[in-house]
Here is the input.
Amino acid sequence: MLQSKLFTKTKREAPKDEEATNARLLIRAGFVDKVMAGVYTFLPLGWRVIKKIENIIREEMEAVGGQEILMPTLQPKIHWEKTGRWSAYDSLFRFKSHYSKIDYVLGPTHEEIVSPLLKKFVSSYKDLPRYVFQIQNKFRDEKRVKSGLLRTREFLMKDLYSFHTDEKDLDRYYEKVKKAYFRVFERVGLGSRTCLTFASGGTFSKYSHEFQTLTSAGEDIIYLCEKCRVAVNKEIIKEQNSCPECGNKKLKEEKAIEVGNIFKLKNRFSAAFNLKYKDKNGKERDVQMGCYGIGLNRLMGTIVEVFHDGKGIIWPESVAPFAIHLLKISAKGGSASGGKNNAAKIYNNLQKAGVEILYDDREAVSPGEKFADSDLIGIPWRAVVSEKTGNKIELKKRSETKTKLVSEKELLEILKQ
Here is the structure.
């Protein structure tokens, strides 16, 4: 990608109405654009990050047997009345069609769609278990949007639903998904900072589980057991002041951001839609369900909250929009050739080698501006070609201060590691 052709430009100042670091940096660096409170457009750089996150999630959901579908955002009122959530769901966007006069909702979640969907394909114990997931827009009429991408009214979410013959099979799969979630957070760079947090299961079960990433920017308070690295949230700490795993009573208060959650729904929604199967004896039984969610916007925002400094974002390599940012530094408007290792040649060669590269080929921009933009955008590696570097390339990791001179061959070897 040539930076001179990039759809967006960086901004010197962050919007005055944004307090969260993630939103301020993402807007300044040209990853997102704010349309209104709680609603953002993902720009080319930001969409590349989202797609990286999405692909990691998709791979891990497929690894635990999930099959991808896409359910409608538009949902009929009648389904929500069956579950009693038409009037009980506080943040539901409700509206009436001007033409059919039918009441609809904009889906904040999809239990009301996936449960009757499975009813069309499940009749016997031989049809179970089944696992389906989707990644799509969700809508919640939040009373107060805040924290940039962490709490919005429109957002991308992955939700996986599982369907089982009994609670034992649900429990087995639930543990499998827990491990898959930890793999997701490890792969996006948040593994060491993310812990399993016990939360109230509400009407579904004794516990549900949240995955919380520790950060001073967190909007949640959790209580961490440093022995087994699990935590409890505020709801649970009121009931029991000890670790549910090991019984340790010395829990450390931490701030954190919720990046995922999983629930055992049991028969809460299958019963509402008469989703049943016949067991080996021909007796009808309720299908048991599980639900597993990850918000992609929220995950992207959390990564920025964790990985940044005073100059800008520091993307983990797995989700960065590009692997390397190549800067051509010209002397007094001239071209920086550096012999065989001129910037345009390096750019073309790296592209041919399959390296994702952003090439700052802009002519009417000072070296200082190029360096500042590179730090703000936060691509993992920065390579500089100028008259000073001669036949070499100045290479620096965004997360480090040291630079070194390398050949084009050495650069490719480093990037392929």
Q: What stands out?
A: The two ends are 22 Å apart (CA to CA).
